[in-house]
């Protein structure tokens, strides 16, 4: 893979990773809000306690409200679980995207090292050629011939 192509792919993968990170943050916040709403629902439900001097009708109404509240809390718990699952999926997607970017970064580093090694090799060959070219000449400027 050439350097320009690698840079283009790395740029795209970095954008994908950034998008996945944003989605993870959004899903985490959604899960946090769902858990807080569930906690509030349960707290409100706990506050509905009958008083000892309440008439029977009030107790029946209170029981109906508690039943409805329990259903709401159970439904909210389901939403919290779904939000948690979406967060797990988003985290997995971000992990994959981050690993791709990391792998491309390492590939870029290896390509750079290979280019630097190739450049160093060329410089060494150039110096060797210069030394060999000078060695083939005498001090008077004539070319030595092999015996």
From TrEMBL:
One of its GO terms (biological process) is protein transport. Coiled coil: none annotated. Keywords: Bacterial flagellum biogenesis, Bacterial flagellum protein export, Cell membrane, Chemotaxis, Membrane, Protein transport, Transport. InterPro entries: Flag_assembly_chemotaxis_eff, Flagell_FliJ. Its main location: membrane. It is a peripheral membrane protein. GO terms for cellular component: bacterial-type flagellum; plasma membrane. It is found in: Cell membrane. This is Unannotated protein.
